[in-house]
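**User:** You know discrete backbone vocabularies at least as well as I do. Would you mind producing a protein record, from residues through to fold? Write it directly below this note and I will take it from there.

**Assistant:**
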Amino acid sequence: MNYELAREVIGCLRVSGSPQAQAERLLTFGIREWQRTLGWLDEAGLTLLLWRRLEELGIASALAAQLRVAIERNLRDHQWRIAEMAREFDEINRAFDNAGVKYVALKGFALIPEYSPCASLRTSYDYDYLVHPGELERACRALQAAHYCAQPTTAGEPLEYVHKARPRRSPLSRDDLYSEAFPRSIDLHCQFWNPDELRIKLDFQGDVLARRLSRHLTAEQLGVEESLPWSTLRFWALCEEDELLFQLLHAFRHILQDWCRLASLLDIARFVARRSCDTALWERFLGKVRPCPPLREISGVVLSLSAQLFRVSLPEVVAAEIIRGMRNASALWIGRDGFESALGNFSRNKFSLLLYREFVGDVSAWETIERRRLFPLHQPNRAARAFTPTLRDRVAADWKQSLYVVRRLRHHVLGAARYRLERLRWERMLAKSGRAAAPPPA
């Protein structure tokens, strides 16, 4: 990708201020720079949002014709995809309701319009639900009756289901990510946060499912033009403060796992800007994070990073109690490594380990985590599969998979070397700031 172009894209998508200057600077980049950066835009989930911003500013038509045609095609395909996903989403919700399963939908449609203007501008590849552990078996039966089948998962991961007629597959091309035919999965969660996944224990107040709210979306909010079998899409979602907390935790978990789309941080920045004057909301939110210092620190990291990237002012009560109350190490990581890491969707370096270390108090546990993250020994993901048994397709898939494995090996070797050097600098900076050890928030 072209890093200068990526920086201008972020500037153009900032929530506050005038993005006109950044948007006009985008027009100074040539077609080669754009072609090198389109993959990054798709991975970051920003392509369609950028296109809408350029349309609003009246300069989308000034882009090269080749770019306009590709993005407009993807937007049109994604609108069809969202219409199909809305139908699927409604069917899943009805299956749960008919089976008496108490659920809330997470992410996806639940983020419209508070976090993202309309569903057709936000790329999504699965449906996430939270259910009570005692109702998990009933939820699974409801999905099976609706022709979904379980996928293999490891212990501690959410249960995954896919439709029998639409098995999971790898994208054939970048454009495939916007295709209506690209299949989706269903992830069933029975915990708001899994303490064993990252070895970070958090305490939550009450039962989030007991505070759930009924939500609905119109066709206009979905951003689709074709007729749907209902006038509004209805479902159960988290209450506002629980939804915000989940989005912060979701982004933080992905940051520590070296993969968080920039669109997730833009979603949070949009919500903050939209609700910045809602004092009652922020008081309810602070009431949930105050009793748990790690939760307060995590909220500060993600809110601060989102606000700095996309230029949004945090409410003063949040700035006073959370941001200015963050530990020096967290603030230092945001200022020193946060922007560069975010620019690569947190996947191009391993600097998130420096932040991760601040939340793990057990030295032995941390050494194991660090070793596994620097040099993962598990089998690489499948980047390509042959969809027909022909020799040509199998050879093409094997070649693509081999290139993927080589790229991942190179990433881990170079990433580990860069991390080792950065960790030495990091420890010297912490020592200068008066803190050599890193006791996690208790």
Observations:
- The mean pLDDT is 90.
- The longest strand covers residues 126-131.
- The beta strands are 103-106, 126-131, 148-150, 159-163, 185-189, 213-218, 232-237.
- The radius of gyration is 22 Å.
